[in-house]
Design brief:
- The protein has 119 residues and is mainly alpha-helical.
- The chain has one domain.
- Helix content is 29%, strand content 7%.
Length: 119
């Protein structure tokens, strides 16, 4: 895929098609995960910036996501550049992307109250 094709996908609002192509799934993504030894670079404090500060203690976490440092939407020309990619765990990727991280471990479902009244 040429760089201009990535730009066309982004402009058409179909950036997810880039992530479904074999070039990404079979070549780029595995290459970056292997380069970073499948370790989250943010949890290890190897990738940190003023924009995405990491206040958690240094810890070894398995990375499953490859993140574009310069976003695909703004910089499609950097979409396939290895220096623009970093391996992150799901939690760090959600934090960097501005998504809320929820922990559901402490939430218990309430049992519905039984109404003895028959209708």
């Amino acid at each position: 895929m040429k760089k201009s094709n990535v730009r066309e996908l982004v402009e058409a609002g179909e950036k997810n098609k880039f992530y479904k192509r074999a070039e990404w799934t079979d070549k780029l993504r595995p290459m970056i995960l292997e380069r970073d030894h499948y370790e989250c670079q943010r949890c290890l404090h190897k990738w940190d910036s003023a924009e995405y500060p990491n206040t958690r203690p240094k810890k070894l976490t398995r990375a499953r996501t490859v993140h574009h440092v310069y976003p695909l939407e703004k910089y499609p020309e950097y979409a396939k550049e290895p220096w623009n990619m970093v391996s992150l765990c799901n939690r760090c990727h959600n934090e960097v992307e501005g998504r809320k991280w929820f922990s559901f471990k402490g939430i218990k479902k309430k049992k519905p109250e039984i109404n003895e009244e028959l209708w």
